[in-house]
Specification:
The complex is a heterodimer.
Chain A: E1 4-16, H1 24-31, H2 41-44, E2 48-61, E3 65-69, H3 76-84, E4 91-97, E5 100-103, H4 116-126, H5 134-145, H6 160-171, E6 178-182, H7 190-206, E7 209-213, H8 217-223, E8 226-231, E9 234-240, H9 241-252
Helix pairs in contact in A: 4-5, 4-6, 5-6
Chain B: H1 2-6, H2 8-18, H3 20-35, H4 43-63, H5 68-91, H6 100-105, H7 111-139, H8 147-175, H9 179-193, H10 214-226, H11 233-257, H12 261-264
Classes of the chains: A alpha/beta, B mainly alpha.
Chain lengths: 253, 265
């Protein structure tokens, strides 16, 4: 079965709620706004919306290794989250065929009082892994993270580098059909950086489709075959990787 | 039928029930983490419960001149079931915004978090249940054998209602943050209005008013048979009616607002 991703005129709007907009009082007071009763200008001027993704049309097929580049706030992570299924488009369609695995916000949701072992197990299980694979998950984490005895300590004792090692160990496991990665190479010491890069390259090579959001242009040129340059929630350029990088550099340098 | 099969709420519910091990494991783990760094662990909860119910019983039987033996089991079981229900009601509103990082990181159905929380609350209730059994052994009241069926069925009904209620209130309180303080403020007087600390017959001619309170049914389905009260079919009709009403409301609200939750938390 071939893996593919198809996006058709996909838009994603983020409703912005101010503190007061999350309360009943404002909702009630806005009922009387015609009489000049309402104090809030948030509701009277309509709800604020930020368009995170604007009219995205995209077709990605088996064998595509795509880099997503662009400035902060361009919509790179949002696009990845849309493809993961965390967000549903406000309008337009998203069609995905294949098992998706994502590495976004690694280590989010880790519990400070739980040990390294427990956090890895929890994060795998929440992603649907069976508890039967417990031994396998633990062995892999021991070997890959290299954290040794620290794995049986609560993670509040970890340094940030150690936490990111743990996070990466919990994310890397199986080879999915579609792999979505958000920037992550910046953490960890030299030894671990190399190790994780080797492992991820291996997984990237074996997955059918890969999307990789990064600011490291040299790295994406090394790992990807195509690139998507995003700007203001839109795809500004999609195609050849060198061309995409030069368009991006021309815009900002 | 097709409508139900394609409904988002039903689909998510079925999917999560099929993957029961993940939320059950998480709930068990939450419990484990709760007792870490304590010496007595779960016994603190049991001890606390025994002390407060014991004091209440002593106080009430003195003030109202009741037969304490008769009242002890009634008060204990009512108080223990009330504690379970109150935890469900008070914890419910934060189920989504308390898990915002998980909701924004993993593409798992939001109801997963609801089941995890409901399962944790059920496990906590299981801690207290032995207290009732110990009292039953000591006092040996005259109870009907139907309790073998009504006890598990009653617990199942409360569990189902806790899942439905938590999903509904979780969605509302993710959107409107006033919901949580409102619920908390209402729960204290509810204890006084529910037949937990007093018996319905003490109300005299006003006894029928207890049927206006949904908590009467939820407590009654478990407690009545445990303390050897006469079978009251209305309690069961009421509990089933509440479950069906909540189920319908859950299907509507969850299907409409599921995709918005991630933006609100």
């Amino acid at each position: 079965m071939k893996s593919y991703i198809k996006l058709n005129n996909s838009c994603l709007d983020f409703p912005i709620y101010e503190g007061s907009d999350l309360s009943f009082r404002n909702k009630i007071s806005s009922l009387g706004k015609k009489d000049g009763f309402a104090k809030s200008n948030i509701i009277t001027s309509g709800r604020r919306i930020v368009r995170g993704l604007d009219n995205i049309n995209l077709e990605i097929n088996t064998g595509d290794k795509i880099a997503i580049i662009g400035p902060n706030g361009a919509g790179k992570t949002t696009l990845l989250k849309l493809l993961t299924g965390i967000y549903v488009p406000t309008s337009g369609t998203v069609e995905i065929n294949g098992k998706v695995s994502s590495m976004i916000d690694l280590g989010f949701g880790f519990l400070d009082d739980a040990t390294g072992y427990e956090n890895i197990l929890l994060s795998r299980i929440i992603q649907g892994e069976s508890i039967k694979n417990k031994q396998h998950i633990i062995e892999f984490a021991e070997e890959f993270s290299g954290l040794g005895e620290y794995l049986s300590l609560p993670i509040r004792t970890y340094s940030s580098g150690m936490k990111s090692r743990l996070a990466l160990s919990s994310a890397i496991h199986n080879v999915p059909d579609i792999l979505l990665i958000d920037e992550f190479f910046s953490t960890g010491d030299i030894e671990f950086s190399k190790k994780s890069r080797d492992k991820i390259t291996e997984i990237m090579d074996n997955s059918s489709i890969m999307l990789f959001a990064s600011h490291d242009l040299n790295l994406v040129k090394e790992l990807c075959t195509k690139a998507m340059y995003m700007k203001n929630g839109q795809i500004s350029y999609y195609g050849d990787i060198d061309k995409a990088c030069s368009v991006y550099e021309n815009d900002y340098l | 039928m097709n409508f139900l099969r394609n409904n988002i709420a039903i689909k998510d519910l079925v999917f999560s029930i099929q993957n029961y091990y993940s939320w059950m494991f998480m709930a068990y783990f939450d419990l484990k983490l709760k007792y870490r760094k304590t010496y007595l662990g779960p016994w603190w909860v049991v001890l606390g419960m025994a002390i407060s119910a014991g004091i209440l019983c002593l106080l009430w039987s003195t003030i109202f001149n009741l037969d304490w033996k008769n009242f002890l089991l009634y008060l204990f079981s009512g108080f223990i079931i009330w504690t379970w229900i109150m935890t469900i009601i008070v914890d419910g509103p934060e189920v989504f915004y308390g898990n915002s990082s998980l909701l924004k990181t993993y593409a798992i159905p939001p109801i997963f978090h609801v089941l995890r929380k409901s399962c944790l609350n059920l496990l906590l209730f299981f801690h207290h249940l032995p207290l009732i059994f110990i009292l039953l052994l000591i006092l040996q009241p005259n109870i009907d054998s139907r309790v073998i069926f009504t006890l598990p069925l009653g617990m199942l009904l409360i569990f189902i209602n806790s899942v439905l209620y938590t999903s509904i209130i979780g969605i509302f309180s993710a959107r409107y943050r006033d919901v949580e303080p409102t619920v908390k403020a209402l729960m204290a007087p509810m204890l006084l209005l529910t037949p937990v600390l007093w018996k319905p017959e003490m109300l005299g001619e006003y006894i029928n008013y207890i049927y206006l309170n949904p908590f009467t049914y939820m407590i009654g389905i478990i407690r009545n048979d445990l303390v050897g009260q006469e079978f009251d079919a209305y309690i069961w009709y009421g509990a089933f009616a509440i479950t069906i009403a909540q189920l319908i409301f859950f299907i509507i609200i969850y299907s409409l607002k599921k995709n918005r939750i991630v933006f609100w938390v």
